[in-house]
């Protein structure tokens, strides 16, 4: 499939796959689970591209054992999953729901029995609806509720989870959920959404402290990054690029390393209390990097509502999302983090990297996805180049193990190494699954 063999990686490099709870679990009403903002959002007409919901998704809640078998056959050394806060605390606070934690207890034990490290993300956007009713991440109290939830989960699983991730892509949750309203909870505040950034980061810092009290396993956060590729060479273009970089890439990273907030659009210091920045800078052991594509930027018109304009990156193949396939962007991102943060940067793991294509079984029921193989091959080569340039990268997780319910796009976008027939729940490993399995075995 590729011109030359993939690069080799050091012994102990972590090979993994990622998923998230609402996108695969289903069982929306099972065993005492409470509603999340995504239940509410997906059941609101007009919100989801195909009118679907995550009520069933991939039915992973009932089929997890078979999915763990797929991971074991794949040969991954780690599985990154998320824990559904409403399954553990139906109202986002108070006593835990034992049946909800029991599911993750069974999952963790099944992974360990197959030699797979459990990597648990505590928040992947499925906020309990009861907390949203009280203000969601606009409410400072949500950060403290999140720390209590982290403590409860770690009390049960802290002896077995091998890596903890507090938040997944807080930039995306802020921007799409509270800024633009295209994700749950569907609110439109534009740059007024900054309090949800600060309170997510405050919750992260408080959760780091709660986890440290319960477990010796390393702790991380998973940020979404997109390197800025300027599409203009004027001072105004460079200023626009810096503004976008501050908003997308630095807003959720500078504070982690004691640098406070950058000069980003919308930053409101009135929501920052004394001591908050020290809590946010609680030391982490790993920085999770989620990468899909770079962003083309140029200066916006003087009367535009934003200080930058997003423009297409011509000359690159695109995915089913119309995202440019640009492995060099991952190299630029990793070396840029290394340059910007220096010795403050902890080891990095690529906690998400993948692509959506319109994968369809052929007449024999097989699913060929050569474009995904080319994507993964190119991005792994970019990681290896960054490592040669001095970046300490310790792992790579493919998004995703399974085709899943893709948020506002419903079932219309497929990211999986494994094809899922959402009517029958039949799993069919794609050719990319076999390619990735062979790559891992060759290491």
UniProtKB/TrEMBL annotation:
Coiled coil: none annotated. One of its GO terms (molecular function) is beta-galactosidase activity. Its EC number is 3.2.1.21. InterPro entries: GH, GH_1_N_CS, Glyco_hydro_1, Glyco_hydro_1_beta-glucosidase. Keywords: Carbohydrate metabolism, Cellulose degradation, Glycosidase, Hydrolase, Polysaccharide degradation. It holds the Pfam family Glyco_hydro_1. It catalyses: Hydrolysis of terminal, non-reducing beta-D-glucosyl residues with release of beta-D-glucose. The keyword Hydrolase applies. Belongs to the glycosyl hydrolase 1 family. This is Beta-glucosidase. The lineage of its organism: Bacteria, Bacillati, Actinomycetota, Actinomycetes, Micromonosporales.
